[in-house]
Give the backbone structure.
Amino acid sequence: MCWTISNRLNLTSTGTYTDVLTALNGCDSTVTTNLTVASALDLTTSTVNETVTSNATGVTYQWLDCDNANAVIAGETNQSYTATANGNFAVVVVDGSCSDTSACVAINSVGIKHNAKNVNVSVYPNPSNGVFTIQGLPTGTIIEVYNAIGEVVLQLESNTTRIEIDLQNKANGVYFVKTNNLVTLKLVKQD
């Protein structure tokens, strides 16, 4: 960032600067400027699968939905945001009284299986009336089911390699299953 005061150019350091300004009629005025130059905010991000992480540290965060006029994503104030639906997302980085917004990041892999441990997982029937069977998960897998707006609607641990998920009491729509084995599944409930 660069500031110009009177005849001084390119003030880039924090400090107190004094200038004497002379008007056309010969009168002068002394102007004292206390300048604080803040370091630029880090607006870069990193993406792994459906998770976008702000590279800025020691600041606060607010994630935005770029496809919805940069609407605030409620409750998403961590350094990382895991998308539960495909779209474009950005983060507002706030450091004291300074804030700025990152570029939008496209996520288009939600619902695609990521087999970090070569897990062969299947889900059936899909779509269904709300009862889904997931097969092929290792015993002890933590399972979280999210609705389309990112709310956790069910969380459980599988004691076998085959588990039923019952969403019959939930609204029709798209749900996402995430596991600690980095498997993401897309479920469609329709009556």
User: Anything to note?
Assistant: Residues 28 and 118 are 77 Å apart (CA to CA).
